[in-house]
Amino acid sequence: MADSNAPAGPASLWTALSDTQREIVLALLRYGRLLRPEIMRIVGISPGSVTRLTTPLVEAGLLTTHTLQVADTGRPQSPLEVRADAESVVGVGLSTNLLTAVLTDLRLGVLATVRRPLTGHSPAEIVTELAAALTDLAGAAADAPPPSCLGISLGGTARDGRTVDEAVFYGWHRVPLADFVEARLGVPTIIGNDLTALTLREAWFGVGREHGRFSLLTVGAGVGHGLVVDGQVVTNADAEMGLLGMVPVPDGARPASAAAAMDCLTNEAIERTWVQRGHDWLAAADVVELATAGDGDAVSLCASYARRLGRLLGMAAAFTLPEVVVVAGERAAIATLFEDEVQQGIAAVRRASATPLDVVVREHDRAEWATGAAALALRARVLGRL
């Protein structure tokens, strides 16, 4: 990164933006480069307003414009986009045993990634590892400007964006993590739920580019569900509590038996079932690897898991009516390996005459979760909160 004594970015300009200017920047982040008529349509403003509102942002170096020749009209067009190198953002994803940090540009393009194993979970240990990660990022992206803001996501709740209300995996309750980080690093910080962060990333850079309404379901260490409606992540005080994990999911047997999603679709559930089938304990990832290699018992277990996952997808879709469902998390690969079984599970709880449920599976990558944390920070900065 560039000289850490340099200004962190035009914070005063972000604070001074009008609500409509913020909408314009957020639209450019979500959709990428846009022509002025597209901005008019998305934001709902006049041609004159587009020029009046964006000119100061271009002059300040937050937006950039290019002249393009449009083939069908022959007239030059000047689309606008966020200037990538105007600032840099740090996103950090905290999981049970790993800290993943990314340095991104202002379009959330990843410039560097660092992974550091965690040997302890105290706030002091986490902040120390985070400081080391930022040093590593600085060395990996020496030409980037110093970070203007930092987002941290974890499996827990942080309703005010600063204090971790609860993080069960870490044993945390009411930990003022943002205060600790800012005191150590001097970078404006926001804390958020990891599923909310990943859902925002998907809304801006994934299926959200084409679909205004979608669900995201994660399976692995836990079961999570995110929802986007009209391009906005739906959230409230309960959205970060993993409520979908409490929903009973039938197993397809006759007579049917149901178990809460968190008891049948997690890593622990796979590991427990493997032992119940008479095997020595194996980590869930190793069971999936055996299934990939064709081991009969592992294939049977994962196929059953996939059908149950399909039922949960179908049940969730019945309430949220998404255009597409994204499956992510540590065990998302099962949905790819056993795609037919997932569809069988969906069919078991969905009318045949209903629109087929479009399922997209994301390969698990903690760097994407960290990028989601960067998205939380960048959104807060655009809104004048960081």
- The rough form would be described as globular
Number of domains: 3
Number of helices: 14
Give the CATH architecture of the largest domain: 2-Layer Sandwich
* Rg on CA atoms, Å: 22 Å
User: How much helix is in the residues?
Assistant: 40-55%
In CATH terms, the superfamily of the largest domain is: ATPase, nucleotide binding domain
| Main beta sheet strand tally, sense and closure | 5 strands, mixed
What is CATH's topology name of the largest domain?
Nucleotidyltransferase, domain 5
The end-to-end distance, rounded to whole angstroms, is 20 Å
Name the structural class: alpha/beta
Task: Jot down its keywords.
about 375 residues, alpha/beta, Arc Repressor Mutant, subunit A, Nucleotidyltransferase, domain 5, 3 domains, five-stranded mixed beta sheet, 14 helices, about 20% strand, globular, disordered N terminus, WH_DNA-bd_sf, ROK, ATPase_NBD, Transcriptional repressor
Describe the structure.
This is Transcriptional repressor. Belongs to the ROK (NagC/XylR) family. It comes from Actinomyces succiniciruminis. It holds the Pfam family HTH_24. This protein is 42% helix and 22% strand. It is α/β, with parallel strands linked by helices. It has three domains: 75 residues, Arc Repressor Mutant, subunit A (Orthogonal Bundle); 129 residues, 2-Layer Sandwich (Nucleotidyltransferase, domain 5), CATH 3.30.420.40; 154 residues, Nucleotidyltransferase, domain 5 (2-Layer Sandwich). The strands form six sheets. A five-stranded mixed sheet has the order 7-6-5-8-11. A five-stranded mixed sheet has the order 14-13-12-17-18, sandwiched between helices. A hairpin with a 4-residue loop joins β9 and β10. α7 packs across α14. The two termini are 20 Å apart.
